[in-house]
Design goal:
alpha/beta; five-stranded mixed beta sheet; 539 residues
Length: 539
């Protein structure tokens, strides 16, 4: 190739690259309209109110989940979205609801006790009145130690957990230094953390003394079996973290109908739990009164995702997806985990519909169930529509999905995007983030973050992204706790998140080409074994 041909080729490549950069500039006129709609006509807190205060917790399979899912479907129809439906993804397992919880210290002095029952454990069949004993059950060795000694007992199964005075705020935003660290590629030789998401300093490991999630899961199963076989009347825990009336906990038994339910299990705030232990240590008689009413369906019940869409025009068969998980745990009303993300997704669809601008590609929302039990709803959807990661034989729909965007890290504003190892989208996303620099959204991280539904899409080679969000109180106060309620949601942060997400969706729908993809992964049978399940903080 002579010099003239080299220069000519270079000019062609430069022109092509410049054209691509120009194409991926944000449409500022549309961004302005999105911001106006998101900030001046927001319906976010109305969505959040119905999902939390009205419908309550949304444990997968529960009445609260069913009511919330149906409310989303109806509201989507009211907004003019098409194909709004509850899409069954197959058997989930037994359903569990509780309709009453009351716990009291009767002797030596009366006091109401703060707590709640653990999911998939039995009710008390009336009021249970008795004297508790302490038998710490935190290891396989502990189970052997106490075998044959706990029949007919109310058992405190945890040690005292210290509740140090708080000198640092529970709520925080990412500093410039934090975001600079997130922007750096991880050390290739570093051991992968359990959580892909950033965690608060001092947050206890969800694994405790166990070496892996699988070992922890085996112990929980074995302990539930032990409690049932030993004839324990009730087990009482102090959760995995928390203080000041906050309790972090999830399940005590299994939603698998083939696994017998353990006896009633409840969790108390550590201050109240510790008081009972101190009394017992000093040989002072203690009497507790507890009632749990649980509604359990033992069949292998179906569950549903909620989907709806805005049909595209010129490229209607190509799709941009957004999602969040609608299911929650039951200690609170699942406000930051993840009614916040669900409300934002519904608001994004409302905003885009209100613009009355025809988009080239179809935009589809999906609110998932079963996320808390291992991304079950999104994994089933991906397997049905795009590919089974165990076989990696893509469907025709696989080639038509441009991107999936997920929101599931609490109430914090969007600060950027985890690229999930897809550096090809960096210049595209940088251009789309630029109009939101004044709202704090600036960071692009090559890192892969875990623990939520974008992983189901990424597992089959689809462009799937989770937004970087300010932590606020997520790991210190609300995540899987009884304080995960409406009052701990930041209205302004979620309005910002809706605007950023709507802009990303619009520009993805209007881009001349699909977003670039990473190479198709090899078949991964182990991905169907539950390995994607994040530690839930259960007991």
């Amino acid at each position: 190739m002579d010099l003239y041909q080299s220069l000519r080729l270079g000019l062609v490549l430069l022109t092509t690259f410049s054209a691509l950069l120009a194409e991926d500039k944000a449409d500022l006129a549309i961004v302005h309209r999105i911001r106006q709609e998101a900030f001046q006509n927001s319906k976010l807190m109305e969505h959040l109110f119905y999902l939390t205060d009205v419908n309550g917790h949304r444990l997968t399979g529960s009445e609260g989940y069913k009511k919330a899912a149906d409310w989303v479907r109806k509201r989507a129809q009211e907004y003019g979205l098409e194909n709004a439906k509850l899409e069954s993804w197959g058997p989930f397992g037994r359903t569990w609801d509780y309709t009453k919880f009351a716990a009291h210290l009767i002797e030596p002095a009366y006091s109401p006790l703060i707590g709640f029952p653990l999911a998939w454990t039995q009710g008390t069949n009336g009021t249970l009145l008795g004297e508790p004993v302490q038998a710490i059950l935190r290891s396989f060795e502990d189970l052997d130690k106490h075998k044959g000694k706990l029949k007919g007992k109310i058992v405190l199964i945890d040690p005292v957990r210290e509740t140090p005075l708080l000198f640092n705020p529970l709520s925080r935003r990412f500093t410039d230094g934090d975001l600079a660290g997130v922007e750096q590629a991880p050390d290739p030789g570093a051991i992968s953390p359990v959580f892909g998401r950033p965690s608060q300093p001092g947050t206890p490991s969800p694994l405790g003394n166990f070496r892996s999630m699988e070992e922890l899961r085996r112990f929980r199963t074995k302990r539930a079996e032990f409690l049932r076989e030993e004839g324990v009347l009730m087990a009482i825990s102090n959760g995995t973290a928390g203080d000041g009336g906050t309790v972090f906990a999830t399940s005590g038994g299994s939603h698998d109908p083939k696994t017998p339910l353990p006896p009633p299990m409840i969790v108390l705030t550590p201050e109240h739990y510790n008081r009972i232990v101190r009394l017992l240590e000093r040989k002072i008689p203690v009497k507790l009164e507890v009632e749990v009413q649980a509604r359990i369906s033992e069949g292998n019940q179906d569950s549903w995702n909620v989907t709806a869409e805005i049909p595209g025009t010129r490229k209607k068969d190509e799709v941009v997806m957004i999602g969040a998980h609608l299911d929650s745990w039951h200690g609170g009303t699942g406000a930051t985990d993840n009614a916040a993300g669900s409300a934002v997704v519904l608001e994004v669809m409302r905003i885009l519909k209100s613009l009355h601008v025809a988009m080239d590609r179809t935009v589809r929302m999906a609110l998932w169930s079963g996320e808390e039990q291992g991304l079950l709803g999104s994994r089933a959807y991906v397997k049905s529509h795009f590919a089974d990661p165990a076989k990696m034989i893509p469907t025709s729909e696989h080639a038509k999905l441009s991107a999936y965007y997920n929101l599931d890290n609490g109430t914090g504003k969007i600060r950027g995007v985890y690229l999930q190892g897809n550096d090809m989208v960096r210049p595209i996303f940088a251009a789309w983030l630029e109009p939101f620099r004044d709202l704090g959204a600036t960071t692009l991280s090559i890192r892969s973050t875990g623990g939520t539904d974008h992983l189901s899409f990424d597992a089959v080679g689809l462009p799937a992204f989770q937004f970087i969000q300010d932590p606020i109180e997520y790991n210190t106060r609300t995540h899987h706790s009884n304080m995960d309620v409406y009052d701990h949601v930041s209205r302004g942060d979620l309005m910002q998140a809706a605007a950023v997400m709507a802009s990303f969706v619009y520009h993805t729908a209007m881009r001349s080409e699909l977003l670039p993809r990473k190479p198709l992964p090899k078949p991964q049978p182990e991905r169907q074994s539950g390995a994607t399940e994040r530690p839930s903080g259960g007991q």
